[in-house]
Amino acid sequence: MEWETVIGLEIHAQLATKSKIFSGASTTYGSEPNTQACAVDLGLPGVLPVINKEVVSMAVKFGVAIGAIIPERSVFARKNYFYPDLPKGYQISQFEHPIVSRGNIEIELEDGTTKTVGVTRAHLEEDAGKSMHDGFGDNTGIDLNRAGTPLLEIVSEPDMRNAKEAVAYMKKIHSIVRYLEICDGNMQEGSFRCDANVSVRPKGQKEYGTRAELKNINSFRFVETAINIEVERQIDLIEEGGSVLQETRLYDANKNETRSMRSKEEANDYRYFPDPDLLPIDIEASFIEQIKSELPELPDAKKQRFINDFNLSEYDSGVLTAQKEMADYFETCVKAANGESKLSSNWITGELAASLNKANKDINDSPVSAEMLGGMVKRIKDDTISGKIAKQVFEAMWNAEGDADAIIESKGLKQVTDTGAIEKLVEDVIANSPDQVAQYQAAPEEKQGKLIGYFVGQIMKQSQGKANPKQVNELLKVKLKS
Ligand code: ADP
Ligand code: MG
Predict the structure, then answer these.
(1) Cα gap 430→417, rounded to integer Å
(2) Does the Cβ of 6 fall within 6 Å of ligand 1?
(3) Nearest to 91 by CA among 150, 30, 38
(4) How much of the chain exceeds pLDDT 90, in percent?
(5) How far apart are the first and last CA of the chain?
(6) Nearest alpha carbon to residue 107 among 280, 294, 243, 300
(7) What does the pLDDT average to over 217-240?
(8) CA 418, CA 436: separation in Å to the nearest integer?
(9) At 45, is the secondary structure helix, strand, or coil?
(10) pLDDT band per the 50, 70, 90 thresholds, residue 449
(11) Angle at 250 between CA 249 and CA 256, to 5 degrees
(12) Closest ligand 1 atom to the C-alpha of 264?
């Protein structure tokens, strides 16, 4: 039997406000437990929530960016459940009337085509506190610093058909919220996390299968593996005659398995009702227009512009525009490189990205600035140095030894383009390699291209990589003929 996977994601993006969604307490991450929870966050009697206006702007910004409908009115609702990290006994969320409804996200698939994934809705809600199990013996510690932190929950349609599509969708949302500067996207700190709803059905069947919900996945890699493992589990289960239960499951990265947390029946009686403490949010058309007019250039548009203006491939442009800071870096680099875009792109997505990755650094903390890299690219372009020597220059720049020109000068890395000097190198190598010369001259023409590599290698070695390879090749061909 052939199976088809169906996936819908619920992404929680923590909105990057200074204070909480309904109180003035700070949202700073990593403070001493319970130092940032005020009376409102603690749910003490006699206090009232007051909406943080910034949160509304941010949600609308997201809605507008994905071409969604922004309803005139949205309403906060109480989602009732009992848990120690939720002091009020309910979470303030939105239910029937979310602030953002129906939008679209374009994702790029591996085969180069694009696909549209529907966003059902995005709603505002407050985060809960955190339970802590380490260091409390048989007890559990509760840290309420996170209680009341604003979240935008972005719910997709069940439009994705494999784990790779889910990752592409999650990455695109991540990119958009960071471009909009409404979420810092820090997944380690939990500012961006997702629940993945996964089901399978026989290929060709119209109805969806029963889904399991994989909770709180906080890395792109985990989303992919967790979904794949869950799909395999469901298929095995059905093929053995069992059936999938609608339940919440936890992905355990250490054991590489998903396991049941709770079934939907016991968990899902939230008794939602409109929160009487909060007024509905009414949004005027002029407010939406204002936000629309202030939107920055978004990843899809930037990607297209890079393809058009810089002649980049779809792929390179996608890599460079996924992160706004990376795109800015590229544009600055190209400028410093007198407009040389292709080489700039290669160096950024190649050597620079690899070095940053290895050092576990972000583009913002790159030891090599965009101006410096551009300055080096300019010297490759004008033949001052070869691409190979540039690796040395790059490494020196990385180690703070100065800019490209200074390094080329102090280390004497200038490419030898003086024809006389190169001729001498070529003649020496030919004189010292009679066997190879004889072999070359006896070989048919189509084999000579490969044999010439030996001579080029020798010359580059002698010149410590500084001889201009093009000149070397041309001269060799002439000299080896005679
Ligand atoms: P709940 O409120 O119980 O979490 P929703 O109907 O809001 O349920 O759906 C939550 C998510 O589950 C959405 O992203 C939706 O696309 C996805 N989803 C719904 N049905 C399925 C299914 N059969 N298979 C996979 N995902 C699904
Ligand atoms: Mg859900």
Answers:
(1) 19
(2) yes
(3) 150
(4) 81
(5) 69
(6) 300
(7) 96
(8) 26
(9) coil
(10) confident
(11) 120
(12) 3
pLDDT at 268: 66
User: Which atom number of ligand 1 is nearest to the Cα of residue 10?
Assistant: 14
Pocket test for ligand 1, best of 5, 6, 10, 153 (most atoms within 8 A of CB): 10
Element (H, E) at 30: none
Which residue in 380, 287, 387 sits closest to 340, CA to CA? Answer: 380
Q: What is the pTM of this model?
A: 0.88
Supply the DSSP string of 168-235, one letter for each residue.
Answer: HHHHHHHHHHHHTTS----TTTTSEEEEEEEEEEETT--S----EEEEEE-SHHHHHHHHHHHHHHHH
Phi and psi at residue 251, in whole multiples of 5°?
A: -90, 125
- The ligand minimizing its distance to the Cα of 269 is 1
Maximum C-alpha span of the chain: 100
Tens of pLDDT along 182-204?
999 999 999 999 999 999 999 99
- Integer angstrom CA distances of residue 39 from 43, 48, 278: 6, 9, 17
Range of lowest pLDDT (24-38, 103-117, 336-350, 453-467)? 453-467
**Nearest CA residue ID for atom 17, ligand 1:** 8
Pairing of strands 281-282, 73-74: antiparallel
Report whether residue 199 contacts ligand 1, using a CB cutoff of 6 Å: yes
Q: How is residue 351 written in tokens?
A: 């050597």
Which residue is closest in CA terms to ligand 1's atom 19?
158
Would the CB of 8 count as within 6 Å of ligand 1?
A: yes
Number of other CB atoms surrounding residue 155 within 10 Å:
19
Ligand 1 atom with least separation from CA of 158: 16
Q: Are 250 and 259 in contact (CB under 8 A)?
A: yes
Residue from 255, 270, 279 nearest 76 by CA: 279
Is the model's pLDDT at 441 over the cut of 80? yes
Residue 446's CB: how many other CB atoms inside 10 A?
7
Query: Which residues face 95 on adjacent strands?
Result: none
Cα angle 435-440-441, degrees, rounded to a multiple of 5:
100
Q: Which residues, in sequence order, are CB contacts of 149 under 8 Å at separation 6+? A: 14, 20, 21, 27, 126, 127
C-alpha span between 126 and 88 (Å, rounded):
12
Q: What band does 266 get if pLDDT is binned at 50, 70 and 90?
A: low
